[in-house]
Design goal:
275 residues, mainly alpha
Length: 275
C-alpha cells in the first residue's frame, strides 16, 4: 500500500502544493473550480483531529512526567490511567501544555520554528527508537516475541486487515489532510519530489517497523503473549510491562519521551495546515 497508493497520493499532494504555493483550500480551486470543495474537505480533517492529538499528547506528557519523577510503579497500577483521565482538571492542564508547545513551534514560522525543531526532534526520535528496540531484542526470550511480530499468520488476513492497513497508511503519511499540500507549498522548484517521497516512505516505514520491535516482543514476553491495541496498550499494558523488566523506569521514561516527540511532530504539521 505504501509503494502504490501511498507513493502516488503523497507525490500528488506535494506537487499540488508546490505548483500553486497555496494551502489546500486555494490550491484545489486554482487547479479547477469544480474541485474546490476538495480543499475544504481536506482542511476539515486537521481541524477535527488536532484536538484528538492534543488529548493523547497530554496523556503522554503526564506519563512522561510520572516516569521522570520515579512514579513508574504507580503508573503500572490498573486504576492509574482511569483515575487520571476521569479527573476534571489534570487532563485539561496537560492538554493545554501540549497545545501551547505545538503553538510555540508553529508561531516560530516554517524555517525558524518547524524546520529548526524537526532537525532536533526527528534524529532524537530515531535514535531513541533504535536504542530501545535493540535493548528489547536483547532481553531473555525476546526471540519468541520477535517471531510473533515478524512471522505472518495468513489465517488472520482479511479485508478488515487490508482496510486497517489502508487507514494506517493515510494517518501515518498524513495523506488527504491538507498537510502535505501545505508543506508542498514551501518546497523549492528545483527539488526532486520523487526523491523526497522515497525518503519519506523509507523512513516512515522503517520507524514503524522499529516501533513494532520496541513494543510487540516485550508485551508478548511480559504479558503472557496477550497483545491489546489503542490507549490500553500504551497507558495500561506497557506500564505494567516496564515495571516488571530490568531498568523499567528508565525505559518507560525514554519511551514516553519518544512518543511525545512523535506526537509533537504530528500535531505541529496538523496545526500548520490549519494555519
Amino acid at each position: 500500500l505504501v509503494v502504490s497508493f501511498g507513493f502516488s497520493l503523497l507525490l500528488l499532494e506535494l506537487a499540488i502544493g508546490r505548483k500553486t504555493k497555496k494551502s489546500s483550500i486555494e490550491a484545489y480551486k486554482i487547479l479547477h473550480d469544480k474541485f474546490g470543495f476538495l480543499g475544504y474537505l481536506a482542511s476539515a480533517v486537521p481541524i477535527i483531529i488536532l484536538p484528538y492529538y492534543c488529548v493523547i499528547g497530554g496523556w503522554v506528557l503526564k506519563y512522561m512526567c510520572t516516569y521522570f519523577t520515579g512514579g513508574g510503579t504507580a503508573a503500572a497500577d490498573s486504576s492509574y490511567f482511569g483515575s487520571f483521565i476521569s479527573g476534571n482538571v489534570s487532563p485539561l492542564i496537560y492538554f493545554v501544555i501540549f497545545l501551547v508547545l505545538t503553538l510555540a513551534v508553529v508561531v516560530g514560522g516554517v524555517q525558524s520554528g518547524i524546520e529548526r525543531v524537526s532537525k532536533i526532534m526527528m534524529p532524537v526520535l530515531l535514535l531513541l527508537t533504535i536504542g530501545i528496540s535493540v535493548y528489547i531484542c536483547t532481553l531473555p526470550n525476546a526471540w519468541e516475541g520477535i517471531k510473533y511480530y515478524i512471522l505472518p499468520d495468513i489465517s488472520n488476513l482479511s479485508i478488515g486487515t487490508v482496510c486497517a492497513a489502508m487507514g494506517q497508511l493515510f494517518f501515518s503519511m498524513s495523506i488527504a489532510m491538507g498537510i502535505m499540500v501545505s508543506y508542498g507549498s514551501y518546497v523549492k522548484d528545483d527539488i526532486d519530489l520523487n526523491g523526497c517521497v522515497n525518503y519519506i516512505e523509507l523512513f516512515d516505514t522503517a520507524v514503524a517497523l522499529l516501533s513494532g520491535f520496541m513494543i510487540v516482543p516485550v508485551v508478548y514476553i511480559f504479558n503472557g503473549g496477550v497483545t491489546t491495541g489503542g490507549p490500553g496498550l500504551m497507558f495500561e499494558t506497557l506500564p505494567q510491562v516496564f515495571v516488571s523488566m530490568p531498568f523499567g523506569n528508565i525505559i518507560g521514561a525514554l519511551f514516553f519521551v519518544l512518543v511525545l516527540l512523535a506526537a509533537l511532530t504530528s500535531s505541529i504539521s496538523i496545526m500548520e495546515a490549519i494555519v
